[in-house]
Amino acid sequence: FFFFKNFSSWLYTLEQMKGSDSTVLTEDSVKMAAHFCLPYLASLGIQSLVQQGATQGKTAHKLMDALKDTDILHWKHSLSELIEMSLAQTTSIWRMYGKSTMALQQAQLLLNMSSLEPVNFGVQQNNTEAFAVALCHLAELHAEQGLYGSVSELIQHLKEQFPPHTQHAKLWMLCDLKIQFEQHMNEGKYHLADSLVTAISALNKTEGLYRKAQVLKALKRSTAASNILQQLQVHCEKMKSIEMTIRVLLSTAELHWESSGFSTTLPLLLQALALARQHHLQSLASESILHLAFTQLMLGVPEQALNVLHEAIEPILAHGAVIDKGRAMLLAARCQMAVAGIGTHRREQTDVCTALLAVKTLTEAAGNFSTLNCKERLRDVHYLQAQLHHFLGQTQERNKCAMLFRLLDQELQSPAPLISMRL
Questions:
Q1: Would you say 83 and 52 are in contact if contact means Cβ atoms under 8 Å apart?
Q2: 406 burial class (0-12, 13-18, 19+ CB within 10 angstroms)?
Q3: Backbone angles phi, psi at 103, to 5 degrees
Q4: pTM
Q5: Angle at which helices 39-55 and 20-35 pack, to 10 degrees?
Q6: Residue 277 in domain
Q7: What is the rounded CA–CA span in Å between residue 220 and residue 217?
């Protein structure tokens, strides 16, 4: 027991360390646990190594192979708690790598496994950290698809299973706040989103700062947003937080767009894309490509922007959030319109074909934004649709889209931002 207690403390200490030294020491610890026939501690060590590998840019298949070996160990020794931890960790890894379909499958597998366990009357079931993590991932995945009714049910179940002030309550509290924040931002309710920042910061200071910068940027307070992003970048580089570093680079690039400094964003975006690819973060790599394509469109090379965008479209449609699908479709339509020569006097057959393709693309974008009630972005879509139908000589469709634009413009009671200034 003394060895077990000291070994557990040692593993915890290693998890707090950064860099290659902790990896080597953890590997030695796993060998020691295996030598003394301690499968539980050996498994904990391997899971710690997998967690370190994920943050160090290891490929998914290597991490999954390592977890597969631990799963054999778990089933052999009937270590049900570690089976749950392994599934929760696998869910988190797939989420980090931007594979939402795989994450959803792993989370559901964990929940199904838990539901099959015999219930001991008087003992609360499914109140482990792994179960909370899986439910939080499910809530976020449903929120990304605009299924807020299902999200409410999941959060309510988490509240009942993990009441406030209990050990794992902070997991769902932060999850719930982040989902509400994103919903308010999508709907253009920036002041409501801002009201959640303090609570988010109390649970996770870095997440809170990032979201404060997002709100300030949306409210056109660019200087204040820039100051926060600079603080965040220094902090992330110090803590080696790759995901947040990439998000900060992308947000900083968006601030440059507002001052029409499109060419100055290229080094930032290329750095973000390189980091995302180096660490196999597909979702962030796709987001970086979207930003690059938008920048190229603004620099007057829509054909090149469209070629770049095609690389990101497939993973976004397969694994992306509804808002990202809508943004990608809207950007593709804008590139298609530019290639078709909308706004110029060219009327070649190929231009008309490309314009007709843009009509279909904008319809898809409108469907995505409608799902999330993104009225500001829907207004942008209807404006472009009216412009496109006018170019094609489709008067009835043009008038309908112009009317939809006007209705939304009156409802929003805020001046429509320049479409060219945001992705």
A1: no
A2: middle
A3: -60, -40
A4: 0.88
A5: 160
A6: no
A7: 5
| Exposure letters 214-236 (e unless 16+ CB within 10 A, then b) | bbbbbeeeeeebbebbeebbebb
How far is CA 74 from each of CA 5, 38, 60, 70, rounded to the nearest angstrom? 20, 12, 21, 6
Q: Cα(264)–Cα(266) distance, rounded to whole angstroms? A: 6
- Phi first, then psi, for residue 15 (nearest 5°) are -65, -25
Place of tokens 């366990």: 117
Q: Is residue 94, in this structure, part of any structural domain at all?
A: no
CA Rg, the chain, in Å?
A: 24
Is 372 a domain residue? yes
Token pair recorded at residue 242:
């790759």
What is the token pair recorded at 99?
């594979």
For residue 369, give its domain range: 321-423
Instruction: Evaluate whether residue 178 is within a structural domain.
Output: no
How many domains, the chain? 1
The two tokens of residue 356 are 């007709």
Q: Tokens in use for 9?
A: 């403390």
- One digit per residue, the tens of pLDDT, for the chain of length 423 reads 333 444 444 444 444 445 545 666 666 666 676 656 667 777 777 787 788 787 777 888 888 888 887 888 787 777 788 888 888 989 999 999 999 999 999 999 888 876 545 444 334 456 888 899 999 999 999 999 999 999 999 999 999 999 999 989 999 999 999 999 999 999 999 999 999 999 999 999 999 999 999 999 999 999 999 999 999 999 998 888 899 999 999 999 999 998 878 999 999 999 999 999 999 999 999 999 999 999 999 999 999 999 999 999 999 999 999 999 999 999 999 999 999 888 554 544 457 889 999 999 999 999 999 999 999 999 999 999 999 999 999 999 999 999 999 999 999 887 766 665 678
